[in-house]
């Protein structure tokens, strides 16, 4: 409770402890306070005081009102809070969704926002639920509920992640023509509200609110990877899905693979490393990550001095550590980067050590010497062929004539042969 009352300073000093607690699970009695603080809804509510009441009091656009009222019965129809059409659950859900259409008139209402707002209302009052929905739509999943259809891009990223982390399942999906867009759209847009047991869903949302802004939807991608692995991870499971329809049915009925395994499922999600073409986000808490996530000591002492009214000491400039690029990113960008681009070659050359540059230089000189030797040898052979004298022999003699018994013909024949030989010689 002390952390909730002094949230800003506590988050700066104890962000690692907050993340560890979110991985273990936020107590149910504190979610109504923690979720708005984690996502920034409390700050938005303070900055826009009484805005929700003014939006709620105004009549909404009739086209959106009709669609919202038509969808109210579909949100958790078996939950006691939403059983009655005139109950406080459905009325509160209508007010939150109508206020959002007035807050974002160009975006309007999306059906996937219904179950998200319903889960928020189960844990907090209507005004906090409204501002949490605003933060989810604007900060956590921007463009998901607008006509831009950013979900298409994230579905493509999920396909890339599955190829790297679950190659057997990805191959099965490709063989049967099952694209992630066919089953993951509902997962991501509804934040798994329709596909996970309720207690497991709340634990996933604890992680989502804690990590979502900094790494966008990678928490959701990690959950999706674990679900696909549980459905299609083993060979016997893939044999039970011989076609496209069977595979889609198994993925849509994923709730059966998560029953009564809350702690095990969350452990798989937090231990799973998901890297996208532009991100590498671990959720585990090993020694290396603990050192990276822990706040700088100078910042902590500087904050204490500021609270006491003293001037914080200036920290000494530190050398910027070299960024360690994961191996998976190096492999995936190697075939994309143009090899003949001068700027890329210069950057790669600068990163080489002096020993490597000397070795390359010697190799280049050796190749040039060998080429020079081959060129000189070829020139000598051509010169030798040019100076080679012409051979004398049968090729310069005229065609032989048949010798007869007549002496006159024999003499004339010898004479002609001699003349032709002399002419060819001189």
Helix content: 55-70%
Estimated radius of gyration: 39 Å
What's the total count of β strands? 2
- The mean pLDDT is 75
CATH topology of the domain at 151-288: Cyclin A, domain 1
Shape: elongated
In CATH, the homologous superfamily of the domain at 151-288 goes by the name: Ypt/Rab-GAP domain of gyp1p, domain 3
Strand order of the largest sheet: 1-2
Low-confidence segments, ≥5 residues, pLDDT <50?
Answer: 275-309, 320-348, 393-403, 418-426
Pairing-aware structural class of the strands and helices? mainly alpha
What is the N-to-C order of secondary-structure elements (H for helix, E for strand)?
A: HHHHHHHHHHHHHHHHHHEEHHHHHH
User: In angstroms, what separates the terminal alpha carbons?
Assistant: 120 Å
CATH architecture of the domain at 151-288: Orthogonal Bundle
- Determine the number of helices (DSSP H or I, runs of at least 4 residues): 24
- Assigned CATH class of the domain at 151-288: Mainly Alpha
Q: Sheet with the most strands?
A: 2 strands, antiparallel
Strand percentage: under 5%
Polypeptide structure, described:
By secondary structure, the chain is an all-alpha fold. Helices cover about 65% and strands about 0% of the residues. It is built from 24 helices and 2 strands. Helix 11 crosses helix 13 (about 180-190). Mean pLDDT is about 75; it is low at about 275-310, about 320-350, about 395-405 and about 420-425.
